[in-house]
């Protein structure tokens, strides 16, 4: 359809201000506007949002966007509104009159993008309202939340398919995620009943990131030593607990590093202030729990340190992915000790047996990643179902050809680093 084709190009330039599509965006967007079920797996920062935003403003009717976090929704709505688009969200933060206005805008067809949390989607009056609306398609963002195998399981996501069916069985779906291992990928397809979907999957390789694991022996000293190589450069240090975040931020500050803490327990004003200082470069290093990062776009982060072991390789990949967004080198360093794995396991003791086993399997992947002498990139990409012909040459295992990580090696390595 030439008319739609021209409209897409025009909107890309005039609304978003982009000269051209990136990677497979073009093909994905065509798949969506032609009414096909579409499944998109691309790393963070690849530009997945445009794949539903552009079709949404080009097609007739309203696109429903399901998104797991109110903060993410708000960001996107603000951005769309700044572009002059009528986008709104429907979630528990709205009062009655705001709710009425949103619904009016959707029913009149003015609203092009309706962001909605899965919890709100299941509410009876919202369902009745959505049945009356003229909808173009449904986008399921962060689709990995469907899977218990993912790192952000959200039970409400499991109800999405049956709700879509009750609204309109022919409504096309576009599912998007940055974290699909083959298992999660299968779960998403099955749960959204998207066997017929067209899959777009790009490589997860981040060639400019150097991966390294060091045995955690004297981590404070090791950290100071590492960070002091990066004077004036941006970095993130992830710690497991809020307490540890505070402790490490002070430790770095005392040692002359411009470092600030970031975690969900801080006053919201302080959190925003610290985040802004980091984005502006007034602060070099943010010490953070994993609450920090989602939706943060600082291109020149030069290193990401995991002071404590992460909970899963998917999480690790996401968190390290915040380094080197500008395409220049970034270093991803993890301090590893089996003790940390045991600590993480303790967090799961109140969970169900199945949840515990899942969490344990994810942790064992971290143990393998950290202790095997195999190319780290090969392991990370393998986890996402990608096979590498040859080793990367740009990780500690490739550089140093260390064999497996035994206790003796840990000590030897520690003495040499
Ligand atoms: P993802 O959801 O895949 O993590 P986003 O949709 O948040 O990625 O996009 C990441 C960044 O890329 C955003 O700043 C966005 O404006 C930018 N972007 C997306 N598509 C294009 C494009 N075609 N040209 C230039 N920049 C783009
Ligand atoms: Mg996204």
Automatic annotation (TrEMBL):
<dbReference type="GO" id="GO:0030894">
    <property type="term" value="C:replisome"/>
</dbReference>
<dbReference type="GO" id="GO:0006310">
    <property type="term" value="P:DNA recombination"/>
</dbReference>
<keyword id="KW-0378">Hydrolase</keyword>
<feature type="domain" description="Helicase C-terminal">
    <location>
        <begin position="222"/>
        <end position="367"/>
    </location>
</feature>
<dbReference type="GO" id="GO:0046872">
    <property type="term" value="F:metal ion binding"/>
</dbReference>
<dbReference type="GO" id="GO:0003677">
    <property type="term" value="F:DNA binding"/>
</dbReference>
<dbReference type="GO" id="GO:0043138">
    <property type="term" value="F:3'-5' DNA helicase activity"/>
</dbReference>
<keyword id="KW-0413">Isomerase</keyword>
<keyword id="KW-0479">Metal-binding</keyword>
<keyword id="KW-0238">DNA-binding</keyword>
<protein>
    <recommendedName>
        <fullName>ATP-dependent DNA helicase RecQ</fullName>
        <ecNumber>5.6.2.4</ecNumber>
    </recommendedName>
</protein>
<dbReference type="GO" id="GO:0006281">
    <property type="term" value="P:DNA repair"/>
</dbReference>
<comment type="similarity">
    <text>Belongs to the helicase family. RecQ subfamily.</text>
</comment>
<dbReference type="GO" id="GO:0005524">
    <property type="term" value="F:ATP binding"/>
</dbReference>
<keyword id="KW-0347">Helicase</keyword>
<keyword id="KW-0067">ATP-binding</keyword>
<dbReference type="GO" id="GO:0006260">
    <property type="term" value="P:DNA replication"/>
</dbReference>
<dbReference type="GO" id="GO:0005737">
    <property type="term" value="C:cytoplasm"/>
</dbReference>
<feature type="domain" description="Helicase ATP-binding">
    <location>
        <begin position="29"/>
        <end position="198"/>
    </location>
</feature>
<dbReference type="GO" id="GO:0009378">
    <property type="term" value="F:four-way junction helicase activity"/>
</dbReference>
<dbReference type="GO" id="GO:0016787">
    <property type="term" value="F:hydrolase activity"/>
</dbReference>
<keyword id="KW-0547">Nucleotide-binding</keyword>
<dbReference type="GO" id="GO:0043590">
    <property type="term" value="C:bacterial nucleoid"/>
</dbReference>
């Amino acid at each position: 359809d030439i008319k739609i084709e021209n409209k897409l190009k025009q909107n890309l330039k005039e609304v978003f201000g982009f000269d051209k599509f990136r990677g497979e965006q073009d093909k994905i967007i065509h798949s969506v506007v032609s009414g096909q079920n579409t499944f998109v797996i691309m790393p963070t920062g690849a530009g997945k949002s445009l794949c539903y935003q552009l079709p949404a403003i080009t097609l007739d009717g309203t696109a429903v966007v399901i998104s797991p976090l109110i903060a993410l929704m708000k960001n996107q709505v603000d951005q769309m509104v700044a572009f002059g688009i009528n986008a709104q969200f429907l979630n528990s933060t709205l009062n009655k009159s705001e709710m009425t206005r949103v619904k009016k805008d959707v029913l009149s067809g003015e609203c092009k993008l309706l962001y909605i949390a899965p919890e709100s989607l299941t509410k009876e009056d919202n369902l009745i309202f959505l049945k009356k609306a003229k909808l173009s398609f449904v986008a399921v963002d962060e689709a990995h939340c469907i899977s218990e195998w993912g790192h952000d399981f959200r039970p409400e996501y499991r109800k999405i398919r049956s709700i879509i069916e009750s609204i309109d069985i022919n409504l096309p779906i576009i599912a998007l995620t940055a974290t699909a291992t083959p298992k999660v990928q299968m779960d998403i397809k099955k749960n959204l009943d998207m066997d017929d979907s067209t899959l777009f999957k790009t490589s997860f390789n981040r060639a400019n990131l150097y991966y390294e694991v060091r045995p955690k022996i004297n981590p404070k000293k090791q950290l100071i030593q590492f960070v002091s190589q990066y004077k004036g450069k941006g970095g993130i240090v992830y710690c497991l607990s809020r307490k540890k975040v505070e402790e490490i931020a002070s430790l770095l500050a005392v040692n002359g590093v411009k470092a600030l803490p970031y975690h969900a327990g801080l006053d919201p004003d302080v959190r925003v202030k610290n985040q802004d200082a980091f984005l502006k470069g007034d602060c070099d290093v943010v010490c953070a729990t994993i609450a920090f990062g989602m939706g943060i776009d600082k291109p020149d982060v030069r290193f990401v340190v995991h002071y404590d072991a992460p909970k899963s390789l998917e999480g690790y990949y996401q968190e390290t992915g915040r380094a080197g967004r500008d395409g220049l080198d970034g270093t991803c360093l993890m301090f590893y000790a089996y003790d940390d794995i045991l600590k993480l396991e303790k967090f799961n003791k109140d969970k169900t047996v199945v949840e515990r086993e899942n969490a344990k399997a994810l942790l064992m992947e971290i143990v393998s990643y950290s202790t095997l002498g195999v190319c780290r990139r090969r392991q990370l990409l393998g986890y996402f179902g990608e096979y590498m012909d040859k080793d990367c040459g740009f990780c500690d295992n490739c550089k140093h050809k260390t064999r497996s990580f035994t206790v003796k090696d840990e000590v030897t390595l520690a003495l040499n680093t």
